[in-house]
Prior knowledge:
The structure is a homotetramer. By secondary structure, the first copy, chain A, is α/β, with parallel strands linked by helices. Chain A has one domain (2-243): Rossmann fold, CATH 3.40.50. Chain A is 39% helix and 16% strand. Chain A has helices at 20-28, 41-53, 68-81, 108-136, 162-182, 219-230; strands spanning 9-14, 34-38, 58-62, 86-92, 145-151, 188-194, 240-243. Chain A has a 7-stranded parallel beta sheet with strand order 3-2-1-4-5-6-7, with helices on both faces. The longest helix of chain A is centred in the middle third of the chain and has 29 residues, at 108-136. The N and C termini of chain A lie far apart (40 Å). Chains in contact: A-B, A-D, B-C, C-D. Chains A and D meet through α4 and α5 of A and α4 and α5 of D. Chains A, B, C, D: It comes from Daldinia eschscholtzii. Chains A, B, C, D: This is Short chain dehydrogenase.
Amino acid sequence: MASKLSSKLFAVVAGAGPGTGRACAIRFSKAYPVVLLTRTAESYKDTVAEINNAGGKAIGISADTSDVKSLDSAFETIAKELPGLKLAAAIYNVGAGFQRKPFLELSVEDFDVAVGGNARGLFNFAQKTLPLLLEAVPESEHPPSLIITGATASIRGSYLFSTMAASMFARRALGQSLAREFGPKGVHVAHAIVDGVIDIPRTSHYNVNNGAEDGKIRADAIAESYWNLHTQHRSAFTQEIDIRPYVEKF
Amino acid sequence: MASKLSSKLFAVVAGAGPGTGRACAIRFSKAYPVVLLTRTAESYKDTVAEINNAGGKAIGISADTSDVKSLDSAFETIAKELPGLKLAAAIYNVGAGFQRKPFLELSVEDFDVAVGGNARGLFNFAQKTLPLLLEAVPESEHPPSLIITGATASIRGSYLFSTMAASMFARRALGQSLAREFGPKGVHVAHAIVDGVIDIPRTSHYNVNNGAEDGKIRADAIAESYWNLHTQHRSAFTQEIDIRPYVEKF
Amino acid sequence: MASKLSSKLFAVVAGAGPGTGRACAIRFSKAYPVVLLTRTAESYKDTVAEINNAGGKAIGISADTSDVKSLDSAFETIAKELPGLKLAAAIYNVGAGFQRKPFLELSVEDFDVAVGGNARGLFNFAQKTLPLLLEAVPESEHPPSLIITGATASIRGSYLFSTMAASMFARRALGQSLAREFGPKGVHVAHAIVDGVIDIPRTSHYNVNNGAEDGKIRADAIAESYWNLHTQHRSAFTQEIDIRPYVEKF
Amino acid sequence: MASKLSSKLFAVVAGAGPGTGRACAIRFSKAYPVVLLTRTAESYKDTVAEINNAGGKAIGISADTSDVKSLDSAFETIAKELPGLKLAAAIYNVGAGFQRKPFLELSVEDFDVAVGGNARGLFNFAQKTLPLLLEAVPESEHPPSLIITGATASIRGSYLFSTMAASMFARRALGQSLAREFGPKGVHVAHAIVDGVIDIPRTSHYNVNNGAEDGKIRADAIAESYWNLHTQHRSAFTQEIDIRPYVEKF
């Protein structure tokens, strides 16, 4: 497989724990060396090993996207580890912890935590990756892409989800703003509203959609849609898609 | 190529003139025999020949989707020409003529023409194709799909576009309703908001987006996105995408 | 009360049966003579009597807004009955009958009936009233207004509501288009998404929102919001509002 | 005028500088004693004097809504100054400063400032006011209301407005979440998308909408719409309105 890998381009996935992030790392590793950023090494190490064992190339770096210095340091490491490579794709998939609580039981710290990972982290990640994506425009076969994972709460504020919605609406707003600013420069910024439960070990006991077969979203199916976004021709960019199981109520 | 063609499944494209319809017919012909429905034979004959010459299989039928009888007759022809084949994909790409006029210069006939082709035609087409798509659920590798072409006017009513918007909003509403009704039965109903000028002979002299390279949408890029919708896993259906050139203001 | 009535202006309410239409007629009759248009005299006669008995002025006319000739005739009658009066407010509240059925049990006639009353009727009504509203711009204290009643189905397509949604999306599209075209000419076009069950005799036995007090929408409260739209200053027009009971899930 | 003032209820306006905040304070002072919260006394003092001179009752308090302690202190002062009064209406109109800059010229501090005032400030303000609004439910003639000022950037992310949009999307999300949580408890939470330039001294030299008369939004017209939201019957709450000049492109 290694021989098919681009020798000039790479991809980076922030929030590469089990589920979408891991699946994106694996999918994009078929074409590019991949960097996985997660808060702890624990979250990336199995996926990094799996990709490297399969003949791809993966690097894991611990970083907190909500912290500028931590992210600066991560990108310094990337520059050293992958010298001269340009950035073809950046995926922001970080999920901030959030408190699922009635509004009056929340504290402003809960608000800060949600906004920190879900929106401020994307702000920081975009600040680091967009200059690199712009540099890759002339060389990348596919338009360099910043792909952002959203959720139901990105378009709907609701009971128990006030801080989640605030931070995910903000995330979507950043994506939209960046699409309008960087699209004309050749960078594809896309946002995916993932509306449903993802099928990962942690959700294996969840009973969703009455236990229907394929009632939870397969992470590799999300990753395939992200790859399809990345490979769109620049005359036909998609800014936003929704993704949900066939049986999901919406 | 013929050997790769499904021998059990076919696709149908309504509104298969130059642009999106033609490109979809060609793209889907790589996997399925394809039926092209257009109002006049003039509109389909070159594409049909091109596909057949390339080793695919294509059939053209003249039909007016806004007219139930015309469509009934077309599907009787299909049943004869492709006996026993199940329907894997149906694409509705019909563009009704519409009057680009100030509201008070329009007549109710203008309203009827726009609604006829843009919404009533989809109603009829969905009535004919959904039973066939449902039948194909157990056999189709990819979830049988009804894919609907929309436009900017599908989500925005504006000056000079009142009848266009009325009919395209209606079309989108049908798509959404059908997605919620038929998704749980395994049929993928998706709607694409095509926001920009498509690069076809008729628009070759249009100066859009300041004449930027790739400032018009390549029809084959739309078709590729439709194919990607068709091949999504049922745990991860997209109901709506937007498609526009990287330089388009939106 | 008659003395407070405008002697130069009038209002017209299409779809003035029990509920929103009746309540609007009563509310606007406090300021203007009011014309009630309904398909049958049965639907307007009580409200007309009530307004006239209360010292207001009301006229009832039988008309089918989906039929151009019927509407032409109605406006000829209006011109005779209210000579020289200008139109300050036009309210479109017609509810087409629609079949609440699975999609494959519908016929294209069901589609036509829904579109006829819900969208084509507004097209016709707007064609008749906009010229009159434009004429009133210099004389009306409040910006002449075309106010359109929408519903949940105006923004959401769903199972059993495919034709309802198609026609109500179309209605909303017309409203938006007309707002953008006629707003700059001084006519206020507004659309109200009424999301809930209205409290009328026909719905008295409905158990909605767990039977909560005020769990159904009071028609006079809708009418008050329409009046507030009508009296907005032209520097601060609202194009769309939603209206729902405090206990409604949305 | 004082005699008409409620002796049991009061209103609070956060962000009561010139424009919408000032106009709301004046409008609501016709019915309630009003508290004006602004970052500096300079911003509230003229309006407070104007209301008191006109026979109303107004109190100004300096507070920074993005700072929990500052807001705690302000509400302690309110409890002392207006002992026993319940809160009928709370208006959040704070406008955070924001940097109108290309994305790559922004720093994360710019993000924090925008989110601080536009979203975190509302979070804090809602935490303080919702318990008071809930207490007033049984006594207030009109449903106690939390009304939030939004902007074009609340629903559209764009070039130069990335941090503004992120923070205003977040604000809207909070409003939606709170409406769904507190509506059923009798508190009316509404959000207004103010889409245009407000006519205040600072904008007097702006040439908007080609200098059309009434091409800027009159602040008192916004305040009137807020009052109309506040006085809606609980069976007919509006969650969101847009407000723009008749000549505004949208």
